[in-house]
Structure formats: structure tokens, C-alpha cells
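Action item from last week, closing it out:
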Amino acid sequence: MGNTGTDHRPIGDLASTSVISVEPTAPLRVVVQHFVERGVSFVIVSDAGSVAGVVSEHDVLRAIHDGADIDEIWAADIMTTDLVTTDRQTPVVEAARLMTANQVRHLIVVGPEWGVVSIRDVLEALVA
């Protein structure tokens, strides 16, 4: 039987620290290449070693729908900067609530070593 929503392990245990990141000046084409070649749906936009924003598949689709040329628009132009973060000690079940409340599919986990956790990671932890 699964955890049924009572998983109190720290979210940091699930966070991936091998996160794909791009510079703010990376063309949208580079972001799309990461999505396709690495099988991800989310990249961090890193500026001088800190998280400046994120670009998701949804951001890319919206930009293309709005007429963006993937060689003429940069990650910084479409990145989301209103980031949803939590610390590594947040229980998995609380992280799930935070993601639901903010309608996000990825959560940035901050601390000495930052990482990212996806809604899939959280769901698997809660039902495993």
C-alpha cells in the first residue's frame, strides 16, 4: 500500500541536482534542443551561478504561438521569474501542496546544493 499522502520525507531526498541550465542569452532554439535531446520539459536560466528564472515547455509553446522566431528570442525573454521554491527539509507532502497551490509542475529546492523536483517525482513518492 502507498503512503496515501502522508510522506514526511524531506523533498531534498527527491531533488535532482543534475539540472539542465542555460544562460539568459541562450536562443530559444538551444532550449528546445535540450527538451528534445535530453528528454526534459524544464530548464533553469542561470546568471552568474544563481537562478534567474526557468523556461518550461509551456513558456516555449506560448512564445511560438505568439510568433517568436526561435533564433531571435532568448531564454531571458520568455523565462518565468516568479519562482516557486522550498528548502530541502520540506516534507514531500507539503511540497505537493505547494505545487498544487501554485499550479506548477516543477519546484526549485534551495539550500547548499539546489535542485529541482517534478510533480512526477512527488507523485511517485506519495504512491510508492
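Closing note: Confidence is low (pLDDT under 50) at residues 1-5.
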